[in-house]
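User: Batch of two.

Assistant: Item 1 of 2:
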Amino acid sequence: MKLLRSIFTGRPLIRALGRRYFAANPEEYARRNYADNISEYNTVIGSITGQRRNFLLRDVYDDMMLDGVQPSRDAFHSLILGSMKGTSLQDVLFFRDEMKSMGLVPDVALYNFIISSCGKSKNSDMAIQILEEMKHYEVKPNGQTYMCLLNACAASGRLDRVYAIVRDMTAAGLGLNKFCYAGLITAHLNKQPVTEDTTTKILEYVERSKEWSSVEASSGTAETVMMGVTEEELYNIVTAEYSHRRGGFMNRQLTVYHVAFHASAELKNVEMMETLLDMLMKDGLSLDIFIMVQVIRCCLQSGDIDRGVQAFQGFTQTLRHPAPVDLYLALVEGAMIGHTPKGMKVAEETLLEMNSNGYFLNGKVGSDFLIAAAGDKTGDYIVANLIWDMMKAQNLTPTFTAMTAYLKGLQGRDIPKDDPRLMLVSETHKNHPNGPKGSNPRRW
């Protein structure tokens, strides 16, 4: 009956089937079934989003359709929010279309999530289209809408559009806050090609941002607060993934400085970084950990390994608590750039120090590091081997891409074919679940 109900609500038979099989017996169906009613589905959606398994949301939705459960407005909010956090614009637009097909017009908060998703995907054209759709449905934009739109255009380096949005905001009597200036800086960073005045404009906006008072009321809405979305996440600020962290990792009043220091690292501009440090000192402000990570990155990406190490050591000595793992990771990543003997030695020593201090690599970071270390064609390959050993000690298997890079690196060296390490890596690569001969794990 559930299948019949889903068919007769106007949904195509293929959609109703989703990714299921008619041959499943009741026990098998129950095992695959996510939930039985809208309340349970809302709980499942929230749990999946919290676990960052956002790729499962489409499956959950297919399950709802198969069960004949009518999604509520709140369910669509959660589905779109989860897809936004998973940086899946395709899923966001899919759920928007499904919502509209059921006669539910997104409200302004939901449209803000959709525009934010466009920014994460650097699709400013779609962001503009969403704004036009809002006008069509007579959904009035709010301050957050313009901020999402501004930062979406900034992510694509569309400085012309960013300026136009700023003019519209000013004409509407909306003041420019720290997120506007962050967007202006990001737009200059992403605009191609980089020009001689890029640094000058970024520093200018840092100065001008001081006209904005931190005492001003936040533009956050009850909707975003209730959904657990910070403004940094909504506007795709570089500190978005750290905005929920505690322990002094980032001072949220330094948003403009965060974006500017990040820009200096991306541009490998040490002079700009030094100017920002002077400005910060003159303002009587202290570096937070995020800024220090960018300082280390800037030094190392510009090729100054000694200064990067000195910055790391000098800052960690001022901390009352053990240095956060983020500082170690920034040092390791930057030191491996160019695979210089000095840099690889720094990476090795830092990894060993991390290990002795009880810090471990997770699957993503370990895989990224392994790819970087495997690119060392002339060194002794100690760093790549060390990363592999650290991951194996935690029963972590690198991604197939990382495994391939590591295996090729080993095979390119003078190692006997019966070497235990080479044999183990070859076997792991051969049986990798995401490899050509492997079977991808079910999404159920």
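Item 2 of 2:
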Amino acid sequence: MLLAVAVLVQLGLFSYTTASGLAGTSDSRLYLYAAQTLREAGHLLHPDGSPYRYWPPLYPVLLAAADSLAGVRLLHGSALVGSLLLWSWLGRQLLPWRRALLLPLLLALGTPGLLVGKFVWAECVFMLLVAAYVSALLQWLRSARGEWGVLATVVGVLLPLQRTLGLFLLAGVGLALVVGTWRHLAVRGRWLVLLHLLLCGLGGVLWQTYALLVVAAPSRYHPPRGWAQLLSSAADYGFVLLRWGLPLPAAARVGLPNALWAAVLLGLFAALWPRRRPWRQVGALAAPATPDAEPANTAFRATHGLSFSTQLVREVLWAASVTLVSLVAALTVFAQSAAGVHDAERYASVLLGPVVVLVLAAWPTRAPRWLGVGLLGLWLAGSAVRAVHVARDLHRLPPLAPASFPRPVLHRQPVGAEEE
């Protein structure tokens, strides 16, 4: 019942936000032009006639299939609902059932989905792919069945072909899988994990090699801007992540020093670390070490109330989130993109599901029940108020004209990457 309500809430907010039309930035202009040239000439091109290279190719291909801004709107709405459904399923696997019930509503009221859904950006589909990847990975770790491993690998290959940030996420996933499972795996399991990670990152690495070396595109990077920029970016992400749970006004970002917001970011990730509990590792990916080890192709057995796969996937979510934020914040030292609060919310939008899951997983169980219920109620109420406020602001943005798909002429917007 709550899942159906959450889907209706998300669809309602998304429909209202985009009822006036989708908006765009300079990124959108390049996406739309590349999609148009793919339909007309079979090539992804930039407006200057050069090969498309600045971002991965999957999103323009999807835009070409959508064929119109109405189709893009349908694509974004479907991706957001699909992401919500998958994270809701993951919540039932990774969280106690009472907290899992609230996850869909918290995600439906999340403002990152509204922001990226309004603009012709690649994040909506990226969010869906990440949710699908984590779901397939969990099923593979539980069952060690080959079809789930193949599915996780296929979706993992698509991640960096949709967004370069997919490589950052996969780096965090790889770190968590190797550190969290290596000593528990049989030789076959180790090779499978390494092969999975290698194949997932291969497509993204090949695309980046093509863009940098084959096309020989001019570098979009500049000399480093110093540690002050890194501190400022860390502060942006600390503010954005905290605002997902607390009703903070926008003025709060400039009201406190960067060092304090950066400390908030570190404190949040420290508090969200999924603390280990003892388990007994069994299954096809693990070396049977106990007399009651299950036969091959079975799930990791739950021990002490927490299964091996559940704990491991929580660690994967944490490591992927930390890695993405760390690398994107570091990237702002060398590039113009991803700097500022608006860009931080855009780039971090894919972390809404993982962060909310980690918050609910770390929720203190020994606190008085009335306190927990009250805090969750305030969280939901604050999220609802902010979602309505953000939806109204996004609804008022000047939309792209329907004819802008073939020859986009964009309004300048105060969000997203800066105009070139």
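Residues 187-214 form the longest helix (28 residues).
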